[in-house]
Specification:
The structure holds 2 protein chains of 2 kinds. Chain A is built from 11 helices and no strands. Chain A has helices at about 10-15, 15-35, 35-55, 60-65, 70-85, 85-115, 115-125, 130-160, 170-175, 180-200, 220-240. Chain B is built from 10 helices and 10 strands.
């Protein structure tokens, strides 16, 4: 299982989760403003360096986590020249959109790698997300490893009955997976049902006002970081719309 | 014969099994120990679900490292703790037929095996029922039938009576006794000391991945079980206080007491 968050002593780890959530959102919005690879490629490396120096996550580690996106990147770069003429511009747009995708994933990864699950949910709730949604997300994330282990147990049980998923073509193998998916679905639904009863019996939703076991408070440093992030985003807006930088028209008039 | 020679198993840099030797024929062996002592990890080596880091496991001469779980499932059946983790078919008949189908048997042979296995666990007449609609004990017996239909020589039962009420538990115990009398070797993974006392001929006790005891059940209950986080069965405590010594059931205790109980109460 991929576990994104690891405790480290870094500036990004210490930052208030709300600042990191706002920063990530503004960062994603900023990269959506541009489509010129001349801007997007350096931006990707800037965020990579931010992760390495401010988050203490090595560039190698960041690249490893971006590796699963490689097939999408290759397909994007290969498809654009086929649908856009001149082809050289198509390659350029392919590279642009790939960089956008990679930067988008990198920012999300940096948020998850520097913020614990509990802090992340708390951050979202403090920013105004209904706590029911926060709890839903938290429980969903909490149950991923449980379901992963359960799937392993079910596979072992079926293997003990002579079940061999490796044999046969794709369709045969997909059909064989029902032997795992059905018990997994039934167990998951039962767990969800039991959990809902357990939550209700502990008065979940009885009072609209909620308190938190752990409180988070914005420090002076957090306010400075927030102001800096908003400032940089405004600068990106000005560069794009005030100076007209970083954008190539895909459909020329 | 199952022969386990000095197996070690390491997972995530942690040595879970540390040099275990074990032999088992057509007998009932109880595998006991605290949570995390390595019981399930050890049992999963017997049908090839896990392969030892070093050492070897042989089942009737077949080295588990050289055979798939599917091949070994003809010899060693494994009934998991939660029977529902097995069920996915629409009715009991198809559920039991799943294993024999995987063995590539003919339709006639599959049907014969399903009928035989359901009879062996007293589930005749349940063929069209949905597995999930059965009671706890019936589900456990269905899980045993699913494994039994593959005609394995050895059957591993992981916590077969956990979570069952007295009646359902009794029906499972009866099934285990019948399977043993028909010549199957049974390995019971359990925390239930009453079940060990009643059913097991031999006990293997694990602690932190090491075998600390392997011997007759009577000798096992003479150990200081508290040191291993285990309790002595109340029946045994009572029997010893009454001076009846080692007994395995209430019936045996009564026989030893000659029909007369404590305070002069007459026992049936």
């Amino acid at each position: 299982m991929v576990q994104f968050y690891r405790e480290r002593d870094s500036l990004l780890h210490r930052l208030d989760p709300r600042v990191k959530i706002i920063g990530t959102t503004l960062g994603i919005a900023a990269i959506m403003l541009y489509n010129d690879p001349v801007v997007l490629i350096p931006l990707f490396f800037v965020f990579l360096l931010i992760g390495a120096f401010l988050g203490k996550i090595s560039i190698r580690e960041q690249m490893t986590l971006l590796k699963p996106l490689l097939p999408i990147v290759i397909i994007t770069i290969a498809v654009w020249p086929l649908i856009y003429k001149p082809r050289l511009m198509g390659v350029l747009f392919g590279v642009s959109f790939s960089m956008r995708l990679l930067t988008f994933a990198l920012l999300t990864f940096l948020l998850l790698a520097t913020t614990s699950q509990a802090d992340l949910i708390l951050g979202f709730v403090k920013l105004g997300m209904p706590h029911e949604y926060g709890l839903t997300i938290s429980i969903s994330l909490r149950y991923i490893p449980t379901l992963y282990r359960l799937a392993g147990t079910i596979m072992d049980a079926q293997k003990s009955r002579g079940w061999e998923v490796e044999k046969g073509n794709f369709i045969t193998r997909a059909r064989k997976m029902t032997a795992v998916l059905i018990p997994l679905l039934v167990s998951s639904l039962k767990t969800a049902h039991e959990l809902s009863i357990a939550l209700e019996s502990r008065s979940f939703g009885a009072s609209p006002r909620r308190t938190f076991i752990r409180e988070i408070r914005m420090t002076k440093g957090d306010y400075v970081a927030l102001a800096l992030t908003i400032g940089l985003f405004l600068l990106a807006l000005y560069a794009r719309y005030g100076l007209g930088l970083g954008h190539i028209s895909i459909y020329p008039r | 014969m199952i022969r386990v020679k000095n197996i070690h198993f390491t997972y995530n840099d942690r040595e879970v099994l540390r040099g275990i030797d074990f032999r088992m024929g057509n007998e009932i062996v109880a595998l006991v120990g605290q949570n995390g002592s390595g019981k399930t990890t050890f049992a999963k080596h017997l049908n090839g679900l896990l392969k030892p880091t070093s050492g070897s496991v042989e089942v009737d001469g077949l080295d588990t490292r050289e055979h798939t779980v599917a091949e070994l499932s003809r010899l060693v059946g494994y009934v998991f703790q939660n029977p529902e983790h097995m069920f996915f078919e629409e009715n009991v008949f198809r559920e039991v037929a799943f294993g024999p189908k995987n063995l590539g048997l003919s339709e006639d042979e599959i049907e014969a095996r399903v009928r035989w296995a359901l009879k062996a666990v007293n589930l005749e007449g349940y063929e069209e029922r949905t597995p999930y609609s059965l009671s706890g004990g019936e589900k456990q017996r269905l899980a045993i039938a699913c494994v039994l239909a593959m005609k394995p020589r050895y059957i591993i039962l992981d916590e077969p009576t956990t979570g069952l009420d007295a009646r359902n538990s009794e029906s499972v115990i009866e099934t285990i006794g019948r399977l043993h009398s028909e010549g199957h070797g049974i390995l019971l993974i359990t925390h239930d000391m009453e079940l060990v006392l009643r059913m097991a001929e031999r006990v293997m006790l694990l602690k932190e991945g090491r075998k600390v005891f392997d011997g007759p059940v009577e000798e096992f209950f003479s150990l200081e079980l508290g040191a291993y986080g285990l309790d002595r069965p109340e029946l045994l405590e009572a029997s010893e206080r009454l001076g009846a010594g080692f007994v395995r059931s209430v019936g045996e205790l009564m026989k030893k007491l000659g029909g007369e109980g404590v305070d002069g109460a007459v026992l049936p």
